[in-house]
Amino acid sequence: MRPRRILTAAGFFAAALTVFAGLLWNLQITSGAAYYAKSQRSIAQVETIPAARGRLLDRNGQVLAQDVTTWSAVLSEDISDSVLRRLAVLCQEEGVDWTGTGDIQNVTPRLLARVTEEALEGVTFTPAVQRQGSGTLAPHVLGRVGAMSPEEWEVYQDQGYAMAETVGKDGAEAAFEAYLHGTPGQKVQETDRQGRLTGERYATEPQAGRDVTLTLDRDLQAAAEEALGAFLDSRPNADGGALVALDVSDGGVLAMVSLPGYDTAAFSADYAALAQDEKNPLMNRAVQGLYAPGSTFKLVTAAAALEEGFLTPETQILDTGRYTYYDDPQPQCWLYRQEGKTHGLETVSEAIADSCNIFFYDAGRRVGIETLGEYARALGLGEKTGIELAGEQAGVVAGPAYTSSIGGTWYEGSVLSAAIGQENNRFTPLQLAHMTATLVGDGNRWQVHLLKQVEGEEPQEKVSLGQVHLSPDNVAAIQEGMLAATQTGALAEAFGDLPIQVGAKTGSAQVTGEETSNAVLVCFAPYDDPQIALALVAEHGGSGAALGEVAAQVLEAWLASDR
């Protein structure tokens, strides 16, 4: 038996050696040349393919910012003269400027298709993705993208970003970077030793970022910028201004304007001039500018006095022209100072309509500075609104603590100027709009937000920052005063042609060392069903009543918008 087993094993090994020899013959002799040729063209390069960034859309789906792909044609060093001549013809026919040497920039889709169809050797196309924003429309809100700084790279490298990727630098582009940013892909290109492309494939497909829908209304934003811009242009002393429009029902930003602004497309080229401009066009005045509210603060004083029981809607206070409760100070009503007249006996509604200082001096004194400050904060003043934009200022509610913190002295009579929006009261236009929306929105203080919806997710839910419990009768008295303010005088002319009634309060806040006051106005509409709240500030704009025409134009655009 043993010899048979030896013969069988020997036969098996002989067969295996025969098969192995055949494989070697095939690899080295039969297919050797083919495999060698393949090895010469299998030089692989891995290219990172950037992912498309998600779009920024307005509440109605209009594009506010998106990626745009441009192409350039890269020519190899050994490209033939015949190909160059053909390229020149194609460029001329397709209207693409090219000198005949060097790479071709700004390749049109038709030129790309024709060159590809003709398979011209030595020509490869390289895509470049650029962010196309809305130019001068809402630059502070939408923001821009750019290359990462070393500090940003420290953060983003841990999130899987490549160093060469662009990121949101400010505005909504930065606030919603996590949604907008896509995941780059990797493409493997195989070339021969002469650098000619022999094959390509994706190792990883790029994944586009998600679209982000904002609460902004593009058309309303454009109308607001135009209206406020025209107002500022008509007043040579005005340095700038801001406007905010909020949705009363949920705190969504319908429009946000800060002027002067800039063109995001030319930001890099214009940066040096923008940074040195004394009017500070890079600052978002709507969320970073701090302004004395002037008489618009009287709405807070009225709410505090009514809710704390120091006044009723029927209480009358006599305008004596000069307030003499204290030996010092003894401030005057604006009407007495300007015309030597008084408003006589007035209820809170009448005092709001006439902006009677004496009424609110007395109301503020009765309430006291601590309670006055509590109501101001409850209505959203001196508190951040929660908006997603970076750099929001909290503002200042006047009072002994703040005055002491800056080395000043608080006097008992200081409450008088605080009650009419002077002293150290400083708020952003966004906070003034927030205060107005809270006051007329059943006391609901909604977190201000720009995000409406992220692609693939449910719409953003509104977030409560608390509720101010205000008596309906007291709120009605305040709103009646704001309505009366639009029925007479300069505001009546401004709002008279609108098909809805509007409630408003104006303010003229004196700027230290300046002859011309800041103009301030807040308003809401419709009067019988508040849906939109506005706040406007014009630096050195004079009387707040002058802003009535701007507000009316914005409300007219809002009525015409797709709501």
Compact overview of the structure:
The protein has 563 residues and is of the alpha+beta class. The chain is built from 22 helices and 20 strands.
Tally of separate helices: 22
The amount of helix comes to: 25-40%
Structural class estimated from helices and strands = alpha+beta
- The count of strands amounts to 20
In percent, how much strand structure appears in the residues? 15-25%
| Biggest beta-sheet profile | 6 strands, mixed
The end-to-end span amounts to 98 Å
Uncertain regions spanning at least 5 consecutive residues? 35-41
The dominant shape is: elongated
From the alpha-carbon coordinates, what is the Rg to the nearest angstrom? 35 Å
Rounded average pLDDT? 89
How would you describe what is shown here?
Helix 3 runs antiparallel to helix 4, helix 14 (348-354) packs parallel to helix 20 and helix 21 (489-495) runs parallel beside helix 22 (548-560). It contains 22 helices and 20 strands. Strand 11 (241-247) and strand 12 (253-259) form a beta hairpin. The strands form six sheets. Strands 2, 3, 4, 5, 10 and 16 form a six-stranded mixed beta sheet that branches. Strands 12-11-20-19-18 form a five-stranded antiparallel beta sheet, with helices on both faces. A three-stranded antiparallel beta sheet has the order 1-8-9, with no helix packed on it. It is of the alpha+beta class.
